[in-house]
Amino acid sequence: MDRAYIINLGPLEDIAIGQGRCFIVKDTEVAVFRLRDGSVAAIENQCPHRKGPLAEGIIDQQFVVCPLHGHKFDLETGQGEGGECVRVFNTWIEHGNIYMQFSPYVFIDGKITAGTNNN
Ligand code: FES
């Protein structure tokens, strides 16, 4: 069984304030955003609609808007419009670096499963 990992994604300054950047973590594209309040957020990069790159979307403090067709996703819950959703990853800043917890498993309806939580 694969384990959960804590990964150092590098210096916070590598991401401009109010912008996102895509990282490849264990074959998963992760969109990491530097929010205007100084915090960071991370979600699966691939939009469930038509695989748009969410790291290139426009963000505010709570949502990212997909750059391809404008679907909106909550950065805290991963919930999108119309029942779509993306995985959310726990992230934090420590000593000027961005850290992320990555697990290949997710909980869906109380059951552990592998992969994404997209329907
Ligand atoms: S690919 Fe994201 S809204 Fe269409």
Question: CATH class, anyone?
Answer: Mainly Beta
Summarize the biggest pleated sheet.
4 strands, antiparallel
Number of helices in the DSSP assignment: 0
Order of helices and strands: EEEEEEEEEEEE
List keywords for this structure.
four-stranded antiparallel sheet; binds FE2/S2 (inorganic) cluster; mainly beta
Structural description of this entry:
The chain has 119 residues and is mainly beta. 0% of the residues lie in helices and 45% in strands. The chain has one domain (5-114): 3-layer Sandwich (Rieske Iron-sulfur Protein). The chain contains no helices and 12 strands. A 4-stranded antiparallel beta sheet has the order 2-3-4-8, with no helix packed on it. The radius of gyration is 14 Å and the shape is globular. 25% of the residues are buried. FE2/S2 (inorganic) cluster binds at residues 47, 49-52, 66, 68-71.
Which SSEs are present, and which pair or pack?
Layout: E1 5-11, E2 20-25, E3 28-34, E4 40-44, E5 58-59, E6 63-65, E7 72-74, E8 88-89, E9 91-94, E10 97-102, E11 105-108, E12 111-114
Antiparallel strand pairs: 1-10, 2-3, 3-4, 4-8, 5-6, 6-7, 9-10, 11-12
The structure holds FE2/S2 (inorganic) cluster.
The site of FE2/S2 (inorganic) cluster (FES) has 10 residues, from loops.
